[in-house]
User: Fold this.
Amino acid sequence: MQLQVSAQIETMVSEGHISSDDAMRFSQFVDTCNTQFMTHPVITDNKYCQWFATGKAHRENIKHFVVQFSVFSNLFLIAQLMKVINAGSLEGMRASKEILANELGVIFHKEGSKIGDVNDKDREGDPDIVSLEGSVDGGRFRFRAAHFEWIVKLGEVLDLGFNDLGKRRNGTPSTLFFCDQLTAIYGNEDPNIAEGASFAVENWAAAGFWKQLIAGLEAFKQSEEPKLPLAFFTWHDKIEEQHAGHVMDELEELYFTEGFDEEKFIAGGKEMLNGVEAFWTGLNEQRIALDFKD
Ligand SMILES: [Fe+2]
Assistant:
């Protein structure tokens, strides 16, 4: 996967917003991002996700995976709140609040549609039908629209109780390392470092790991657990597809903002990818250990 400079840059040059030297510098920076981020093994060669997608995970693997993912998902709220607090602009703060409030259960509201916009009141917040577009501004809060509650529902089918999920004490050292790195780097006070981490996380997410997880979970669902609700994963996959196209637009905007620091951005991104990698390596080591146990 390679990042490409969009045609927007040429338009910015021709309209006189930036010089052709600026455009050249930007293009060189995108090359640096390609060599520093896009070749990272967590993007190009995630062994756990590759294995998971083959459908070989058995019940113990799936349960361990769900618990660790629930810890990441719940502790991510801390990192996202840090990002809100440390935002460098009102616009940035609002963009971060969109993610935080949606995680907690505020359903995206699309302009022109009625609030809630669901005919079946009993299903409001259901990840199978909940909106992928719009803003939390004007959206409705539903407890059951919280992403963590979607995992709790998934856990129920696997005999995982509320207290088996999402707590620090449920995390392995590698999962906790990842979560702590998210808070420290993604939620960093220095916007250059935080933005580098965001950019890296978005590119990791766009590299297709949701689809690999869905493939593995589908296989388990078909063979062993027909009631397994997968909407937590399918919802995130769909939102990721939508977002993938925006990543370069965001970088273009950021790059030409005063005070942008290339080195800090790259350092933040690389360190964050190492954190992400620790999470998946931990899961991979655990599944190999389980294989040996059999
Ligand atoms: Fe989420």
About this structure: Residues 103, 147, 236 surround fe (ii) ion (CB under 6 Å).
